[in-house]
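can u do me a favor
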Protein backbone atom coordinates (compact mmCIF):
# COMPACT_ATOMS: atom_id res chain seq x y z
CA UNK A 1 0.00 0.00 0.00
CA UNK A 2 1.57 3.36 -0.97
CA UNK A 3 1.97 6.05 1.66
CA UNK A 4 2.58 9.81 1.59
CA UNK A 5 6.02 10.84 2.84
CA UNK A 6 7.49 14.29 3.44
CA UNK A 7 10.40 14.69 1.01
CA UNK A 8 11.47 18.29 1.76
CA UNK A 9 10.16 21.83 2.07
CA UNK A 10 9.14 23.68 -1.08
CA UNK A 11 11.74 26.34 -0.23
CA UNK A 12 14.44 23.63 -0.32
CA UNK A 13 14.08 23.49 -4.12
CA UNK A 14 14.78 26.45 -6.38
CA UNK A 15 12.11 27.28 -8.92
CA UNK A 16 12.95 25.22 -12.02
CA UNK A 17 15.23 23.13 -9.83
CA UNK A 18 15.62 19.63 -8.46
CA UNK A 19 16.53 17.96 -5.20
CA UNK A 20 17.66 14.46 -4.38
CA UNK A 21 15.48 12.46 -1.99
CA UNK A 22 16.52 9.07 -0.64
CA UNK A 23 14.01 6.79 1.04
CA UNK A 24 14.65 3.20 2.04
CA UNK A 25 16.95 1.67 -0.55
CA UNK A 26 15.69 3.92 -3.40
CA UNK A 27 16.65 7.36 -4.65
CA UNK A 28 14.29 9.89 -6.21
CA UNK A 29 14.40 13.34 -7.78
CA UNK A 30 11.93 16.02 -6.69
CA UNK A 31 11.29 18.83 -9.18
CA UNK A 32 9.80 22.30 -8.81
CA UNK A 33 8.25 23.66 -11.99
CA UNK A 34 8.21 27.28 -13.21
CA UNK A 35 4.70 27.65 -11.74
CA UNK A 36 5.60 26.03 -8.37
CA UNK A 37 4.09 22.61 -9.00
CA UNK A 38 6.06 19.65 -7.63
CA UNK A 39 6.86 16.33 -9.27
CA UNK A 40 8.73 13.17 -8.31
CA UNK A 41 10.54 10.62 -10.48
CA UNK A 42 13.09 7.89 -10.01
CA UNK A 43 16.37 9.62 -9.32
CA UNK A 44 18.69 7.83 -11.72
CA UNK A 45 18.89 8.27 -15.48
CA UNK A 46 17.68 5.17 -17.31
CA UNK A 47 20.67 5.29 -19.67
CA UNK A 48 23.45 5.33 -17.06
CA UNK A 49 22.91 5.50 -13.33
CA UNK A 50 23.64 9.22 -12.90
CA UNK A 51 21.47 11.21 -10.49
CA UNK A 52 19.10 13.56 -12.29
CA UNK A 53 18.92 16.00 -9.36
CA UNK A 54 22.38 17.12 -10.56
CA UNK A 55 21.06 17.86 -14.05
CA UNK A 56 19.91 21.07 -15.68
CA UNK A 57 16.19 21.78 -15.19
CA UNK A 58 14.52 24.06 -17.72
CA UNK A 59 10.80 24.49 -18.17
CA UNK A 60 9.43 20.94 -17.71
CA UNK A 61 12.53 18.96 -18.65
CA UNK A 62 15.58 17.70 -16.81
CA UNK A 63 18.82 17.09 -18.71
CA UNK A 64 21.03 14.24 -17.55
CA UNK A 65 24.41 15.65 -16.45
CA UNK A 66 26.36 12.83 -18.12
CA UNK A 67 25.19 12.51 -21.74
CA UNK A 68 22.62 15.33 -22.08
CA UNK A 69 19.64 13.03 -22.51
CA UNK A 70 16.41 14.65 -21.36
CA UNK A 71 13.19 13.65 -19.62
CA UNK A 72 9.86 15.38 -19.09
CA UNK A 73 9.78 15.30 -15.30
CA UNK A 74 5.98 15.64 -15.22
CA UNK A 75 5.49 12.23 -16.85
CA UNK A 76 8.95 10.62 -16.81
CA UNK A 77 8.95 10.41 -20.62
CA UNK A 78 12.38 10.17 -22.27
CA UNK A 79 12.55 13.17 -24.62
CA UNK A 80 16.10 13.16 -26.02
CA UNK A 81 18.57 10.34 -26.64
CA UNK A 82 20.55 8.52 -25.42
CA UNK A 83 17.89 7.45 -22.86
CA UNK A 84 15.05 5.53 -24.51
CA UNK A 85 13.42 4.13 -21.36
CA UNK A 86 11.04 6.37 -19.44
CA UNK A 87 11.48 7.21 -15.78
CA UNK A 88 8.92 6.01 -13.28
CA UNK A 89 7.02 8.94 -11.79
CA UNK A 90 5.20 9.20 -8.46
CA UNK A 91 2.37 11.41 -7.19
CA UNK A 92 3.57 14.58 -5.44
CA UNK A 93 1.73 17.44 -3.77
CA UNK A 94 2.28 20.47 -1.55
CA UNK A 95 0.98 20.36 1.99
CA UNK A 96 1.60 23.29 4.35
CA UNK A 97 4.81 24.25 2.52
CA UNK A 98 6.12 20.66 2.44
CA UNK A 99 6.61 18.47 -0.62
CA UNK A 100 4.81 15.19 -0.05
CA UNK A 101 5.36 12.16 -2.31
CA UNK A 102 3.38 8.97 -2.52
CA UNK A 103 5.81 6.04 -2.58
CA UNK A 104 5.31 2.29 -2.49
CA UNK A 105 5.97 0.64 0.87
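np, heres the sequence
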Amino acid sequence: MPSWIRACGLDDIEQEGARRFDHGDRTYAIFRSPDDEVFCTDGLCTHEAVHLADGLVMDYEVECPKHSGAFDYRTGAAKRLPPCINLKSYPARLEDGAVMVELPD
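The chain is about 0% helix and 50% strand. hope that helps!!
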